[in-house]
């Protein structure tokens, strides 16, 4: 039950943050884009689907990726609720072996190895969706 509470807490927190990212991304698209699409006879749904959202996705990729990586790291908070996790294991091992620096560097390396591919993917996706790419 405690694990579900931790997941629910992280989920609600990041859901609100992601909703704000997408709202800001949609609002970042100039109003003239929507007006031009409507003037061409597109419905509101077509305007959103074919004009606004493709441009908004380009805008929201960096903050969404940052939030994903932050959520991965913030999942260590759930360990306080009793889920044994990487940071928790580090604390237990470091306390028993008194090797805080070595184990701390190893833990940081594991976090880096797990989150760096996400960063590379986000960079690749951002380059692929750039405005001047086409």
How would the blueprint of this fold be written?
Blueprint: H1 2-27, H2 31-39, H3 44-74, H4 86-97, H5 100-128
Helix pairs in contact: 1-3, 2-3, 3-5, 4-5
Explain what you see:
The relative contact order is 0.11. The chain is mainly alpha-helical and 134 residues long. It has helices spanning 2-27, 31-39, 44-74, 86-97, 100-128. The longest helix has 31 residues, at 44-74. The chain is elongated, with a radius of gyration of 21 Å.
Name given to the CATH architecture: Orthogonal Bundle
> What count of structural domains?
1
Counted beta strands: 0
Helix content range of the residues, please?
over 70%
Q: What is the gyration radius calculated from CA atoms? A: 21 Å
- The name CATH uses for the topology is MetI-like fold
What is the CATH first-level class name?
Answer: Mainly Alpha
The shape is elongated
Relevant CATH superfamily: MetI-like
Protein structure class:
mainly alpha
What is the straight-line distance between the termini? 50 Å
Question: How large a portion of the residues is in β-strands, by DSSP E?
Answer: under 5%
């Amino acid at each position: 039950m405690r694990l579900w509470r931790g997941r629910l807490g992280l989920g609600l927190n990041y859901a609100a943050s992601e909703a704000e990212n997408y709202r800001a991304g949609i609002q970042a698209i100039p109003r003239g884009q929507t007006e031009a699409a409507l003037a061409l006879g597109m419905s509101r749904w077509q305007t959103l689907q074919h004009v606004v959202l493709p441009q908004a996705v380009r805008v929201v990729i960096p903050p969404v990726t940052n939030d994903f990586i932050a959520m991965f790291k913030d999942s260590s908070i759930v360990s306080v609720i009793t889920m044994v996790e990487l940071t928790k294991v580090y604390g237990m091992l470091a306390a028993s072996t008194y090797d805080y620096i070595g184990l701390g560097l190893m833990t940081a390396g594991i976090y880096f190895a797990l989150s760096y591919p996400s960063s590379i993917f986000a960079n690749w996706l951002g380059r692929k969706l750039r405005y001047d790419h086409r």
